[in-house]
Design goal:
seven-stranded mixed sheet, alpha/beta, 2 domains, 14% strand, binds pyridoxal-5'-phosphate, Aspartate Aminotransferase, domain 1, Aspartate Aminotransferase, domain 2, 36% helix
């Protein structure tokens, strides 16, 4: 008779999953190359420029602009798309803080829309319902690499003359009809922060299929300078969001390894999709048939409490005890603390009268996903079939002990 590890039994797994991030001598050599060159600054070095070309080639974009991180890239992309003071941007409710913060930072007004239950991506019907005469753009997030319905969103954008910014922080390697995310809308933003599928600790890149948008993004990351003009001429209110040569060198090495890692991840994700769907109450994240590749930033499942026999937080605690690394969902954007606090947007925004009352809003699908999903970290997809099987075995074990899960005390976040 097995006993849940959370109640003193033996865990399904005692060995760690593959360490993340992965690196080898390619990163080491790249870092030493930068050190020895004394060109540590991208304005003088060659690494960031080479990395931009390589990333543009990989994504089949017209070009790429490297930046400090995936928050600044969103701000820069919005500015380059002409979004600013007073404009409305329709944004998904299920994302990380940066997605909505970037809109507020450029002086625009976020208008939140709910998501589709199966994928967790923005619901085109909700987008349509949120359009006003002030709407300028739609901000899409491809959650855990599952691509939003870009056909429907593009049709809406064309009909209403709106720009689409794809936040691809979760979706390196994701394709829609064999086209890399970030090239489907007007601009695509990537993060290379430590948990992402390619990383330099921090880092960002923006791609676009439009040459003029790329040109403006390049200016906004570099203090409003125009290439080829005197260094102390600043033509617009950009900022310094330049990537360092260290990051460029590391990301070049990370990109070389990425396609191979992507094969491992996809094979393990396909295996989990098939196996976990057989456990009552475990619902793997859906993926549209037009999403022809999914770069799983993480692997997401929804726990249906009535079928599984336990709520998400108890399942999470019990899985951690079984040796399975995971996190849970972000809170919905509308429920972030900064919207509940009257001073949460100050001093950037003191007069909140032009903004919706986010904290009182209700977005039922996002609320449901945020309280019922488990996010397995990339590490569980980066190992052997046995490593993935342990996730299945752990969830199957919990399911067969669902009555005892009531005695598990959820660990704090
Ligand atoms: C969906 C999403 N957008 C944007 C970001 C911001 O990226 P960064 O941490 O590089 O600023 C993140 C980071 O976690 C993210 O998950």
């Amino acid at each position: 008779m097995t006993v849940l590890a959370a109640l003193g039994g033996a865990p399904v797994r005692t060995s760690p999953y593959p360490a993340w991030p992965q690196f080898d001598d390619q990163e080491r050599t790249g870092l030493l190359r930068v050190l020895d060159s004394r060109d540590w600054w991208s304005s003088q070095g060659v690494e960031v420029a080479a990395w931009e070309d390589e990333w543009a080639r990989y994504t089949n974009a017209a070009g790429a602009v490297a930046a400090t991180n995936g928050t600044h890239t969103l701000e820069v992309a919005l500015l380059a798309l002409g979004v600013g003071s007073g404009d409305e941007v329709i944004v998904t409710d299920w994302s990380f803080f940066a997605t909505i913060a970037a809109i507020l930072t450029v002086g625009a007004v976020p208008v939140i829309a709910d998501v589709v239950l199966e994928t967790g991506c923005i619901d085109p019907d909700e987008v349509r319902a949120a359009i006003t005469s002030r709407t300028r753009a739609i901000m899409v997030v491809h959650v855990a690499g599952s691509v939003a319905d870009m056909d429907a969103l593009t049709a809406i954008a064309e009909e209403h003359d709106l720009r689409i910014l794809e936040d691809c922080a979760h979706a390196h390697g994701s394709m829609w009809r064999d086209q890399h995310v970030g090239t489907l809308g007007d601009a695509g933003s990537f993060s290379f922060q430590a948990s992402k599928l390619m990383t330099a600790g921090e880092g960002g890149a923006i791609i676009s299929r439009h040459a003029d948008v790329l040109e403006r993004m390049r200016e906004y990351v570099n203090c409003g300078r125009h290439p080829g003009t005197w260094y102390y001429r600043h033509f617009n209110l950009g900022s310094n969001a330049r990537m360092t040569e260290w990051q460029g060198a590391v990301l070049r090495a990370q990109l070389e390894r990425f396609p191979h890692q992507q094969l491992t991840r996809s094979a393990n994700a396909d295996f989990l999709n098939a196996e976990l769907a057989t456990i009552p109450g475990v619902v793997p994240q859906g993926r549209d048939a037009r999403c022809t590749a999914q770069g799983n930033y993480c692997y997401v499942v929804r726990i249906d409490e009535s079928e599984f026999g336990a709520d998400r937080d108890r399942v999470r605690t019990a899985l951690l005890a079984e040796g399975i690394p995971l996190t849970t969902s972000y809170p919905p954007l509308h429920a972030l603390d900064l919207f509940a606090d009257p001073q949460g947007l100050a001093p950037r925004i003191r007069d909140r009268s032009a903004y919706p009352d986010y904290a009182s809003a209700s977005f039922p699908v996002t609320d449901r996903l945020a309280s019922t999903t488990l996010w397995f970290t990339t590490a569980v997809l980066m190992g052997s079939r046995k490593d993935a099987q342990d996730v299945v075995d752990a969830l199957a074990k919990l399911k067969s002990h669902s009555a005892e899960l009531r005695d598990v005390v959820p660990v704090e976040y």
